Amino acid sequence: MADLQPPPEDIPGNEFEVIPPALAERIARRGAGATIYDIAELANVNPSTVSRALTKPGRMSQKTEARVRAAAERLDFRFNTAARALPTGRSHMLAVVVSDITNPMIFGILRGAEQAAAAAGYALVIAESQESGLAEAEAIQRLIPSVDGFVLATTRLSDLRIRDIASRRPVVLINRDVEHVPGILPDVRTGVDQLMDHLLGAGHRTIAYLSGPTSSWISRRRWERIVERAVDAGVAAVEIGPNAPTVDGGSEAVDRVRAARSTAVIAFNDLMAIGLMRAAAAAGISVPGEMSVAGFDDIFGSEFIVPALTTVRSDLARAGERSVEQLLGVLGVGEESTPLSELLETSLIVRGSTAPLA
Amino acid sequence: MADLQPPPEDIPGNEFEVIPPALAERIARRGAGATIYDIAELANVNPSTVSRALTKPGRMSQKTEARVRAAAERLDFRFNTAARALPTGRSHMLAVVVSDITNPMIFGILRGAEQAAAAAGYALVIAESQESGLAEAEAIQRLIPSVDGFVLATTRLSDLRIRDIASRRPVVLINRDVEHVPGILPDVRTGVDQLMDHLLGAGHRTIAYLSGPTSSWISRRRWERIVERAVDAGVAAVEIGPNAPTVDGGSEAVDRVRAARSTAVIAFNDLMAIGLMRAAAAAGISVPGEMSVAGFDDIFGSEFIVPALTTVRSDLARAGERSVEQLLGVLGVGEESTPLSELLETSLIVRGSTAPLA
DNA sequence: TTGTAGGCGTTATCAG
DNA sequence: CTGATAACGCCTACAA
Fold first, then answer.
1. Is 0.85 topped by the overall pTM?
2. Is strand C less than 7 A from the beta carbon of A88?
3. Which CDD domains does this UniProt record tie to the protein (chains A, B) (predicted)?
4. If DSSP codes are grouped into helix, strand and coil, which group holds residue B264?
5. Do residues A253 and A210 touch, judged by C-beta distance below 8 A?
6. I want to staple A204 with a disulfide (CB 3.0 to 4.6 A). Which of A264, B160, B244, B346 is the partner?
7. Averaged pLDDT, B56-62
8. Is the CB of B86 less than 8 angstroms away from the CB of A81?
9. Does residue A304 belong to the interface with chain B, where contact is any CB pair within 8 Å?
10. Measured from the CB, is A86 under 7 Å from any atom of strand D?
11. Same domain, yes or no: A100 and A53
């Protein structure tokens, strides 16, 4: 490229083969890359014109715009996001705060969110609360001044705190419903119903729910729906919990589960279901022979544990994607204008961990 | 708090019970929180004094500093990171770029990195390249102006490109060695040796290596060491690959693995090992009866697949942690001063997927 | 020890 | 359509 013959001066787009040494040196010495001032100098226009050309294309003379673009490209220009954020108040950063990054259900969300953000030229900041409401609140406070919005995935915060944050920055919730705050929710009702239909159809009359943390809205909702269905069907349902939403949390509940003498157990999530099955195996309880087990999420691993786990899947990547799309919509970036909560379809995946009552 | 009696004026730290309405309204109307100007007004000092008091504690009059701190706290002040980044050139953000966020080995790294970053008041920006070198390079270019440094985890970039990035921003590599660029590496030699000892000790004389992507430095290194050990021991070793470093990548290799007629297979990572075992099961090949299988990483799931996977574990959370500590060290933030590469200990986890040659 | 003033890179408001 | 100029919030010599 560089050793092509310099073309005639009047052919647009091929100018700027040569960068004035003075300019080049100044940029190099500064170290941080070219600025709109450098471009302005090279293209012989005012910095404000450069800003305009690069920010709102089409609103100015074709020729000038082309000149500016060419110069910018020649200097390998990138906006300084901090400088940009100052007058606009927009950092072009979104925060995703998750409770436990090692929960495989999270990375689906992250992938979806990252893609949607990247597609819109936004960067994703990630914060982990390690299941602690305090740490979560603190992290969010820290981030408020530097991000344009929040995706709160599986948050442990109170409604009050969430509203407070939402009043300062756009917030989209995942797996949590708070009035007046948009959220992406799995269709709990349908999901639980599918699972209950499956279990009831298999003849189970005593069902236990291994619940998650008290602060988990979605865990409560699942339990509520289970109760409704159990009452309707005239079968017994008991809640065992709260438990940590982890493999260990599931394992540690095995004695209480056994004591409940239920023939089927629905765990709040797959992590717990897997923990329970492992502990059950260690205790000599046969699954699904003596006890059927099911979970939610269909995480990596659910498919190949033995027996393979029956579970209610929801499209987490989609949830992550939709959450940032909603955020961008509120920020006026995307094409969206739907500020409301939406339900995500779920599907029951029947595998070997559940079986008809013997 | 707010309805306590206002204490005598001369007790420090208890001033500012009442915020002048004018100030309060101005801040509220602005919407973006208090600035050092607001604090200055409240504490009756110059903004630069506020900056000093908050930035370099101890270098000024105790009394003034206390006044400023009190005022700042009263106004719930947070630095505007963008504004701060402008004069200093420091965004207080670190980027972690990963090739595939759905690989369970990644979240160990992320957790460690996030913790270390948060502890130092840094935020973590995450970028995923989806195994594409182009996407990776593009994402990095975008981020260069807005982050203070990069952790490149399992990167697919060329040495040249990595050096280029490293010349613009501090870079720490994970699972990749490039001269003059600090990196956190597993101890490949020891790891492979442990595994080879195990396999050779079990009588295997024909070993296959299911390699990862061509661009994976660590995959090549593992293969090299396997070859060395095979030559030393006088046994046969063949490479089967390259393959995608995923479950599917492992599954799709099953025919080639079978064709190789090796009694033991070492996969580049656990994901591939799992894929291979599933495909083997589907094809009626017994593991470890007809074929032993081992992997690397000890990801979530390796323990409870059947048979449980023999694997070489390395402490990924530690790798993530060390990588940002090194970055912070270079940035002059941490207490560290070790700019060099370091080796992470690995340990062999023997499980059911490997067995003595029948 | 504290205040003054200029600058960081960009946007936005006005003129021209 | 383009240029000048004042913010944006903070930092940092330099001066007092």
1. yes
2. yes
3. HTH_LacI (cd01392), PBP1_LacI_sugar_binding-like (cd06267)
4. strand
5. yes
6. A264
7. 86
8. no
9. yes
10. yes
11. no
Dump pLDDT digits (tens) for A258-270: 999 999 999 999 9
Put simply, whether A227 touches B (Cβ < 8 Å) is no
Residue B316: HSE in the Cβ half-sphere, 13 Å Cα cutoff: 20
Is a pLDDT exceeding 70 seen at residue B7?
A: no
Nearest CB to A82; choose among B86, B102, B127: B86
Which of B119, B223, B103 is closest to B153 using CA atoms?
B103
Q: Are A151 and A96 in contact (CB under 8 A)?
A: yes
Q: Count up the domains in chain A and report the number.
A: 3
CATH number, domain containing residue A311? 3.40.50.2300
Which among A55, A84, A113 is the end of a domain? Answer: A84
Residue A6 maps to a domain: no
Could you check: is the Cβ of residue B44 within 7 Å of any atom of nucleic acid strand D? no
* More confident call, A130 vs B174: B174
Mean pLDDT of B243-251: 98
Q: Say if residue A242 is preceded by a cis peptide, omega within 30 of 0.
A: yes
What is the rounded distance in angstroms from the CA atom of residue A68 to the CA atom of residue A37?
Answer: 11
**For residue B3, which amino acid is it?**
D
**A197: domain range?**
188-315
Local confidence band at A11 (pLDDT 50, 70, 90 cut-offs): very low
Asked if A100 and A169 sit in the same domain, the reply is yes
* Residues B131 and B147 placed together within one structural domain of the fold: yes
B46/A335: higher pLDDT: B46
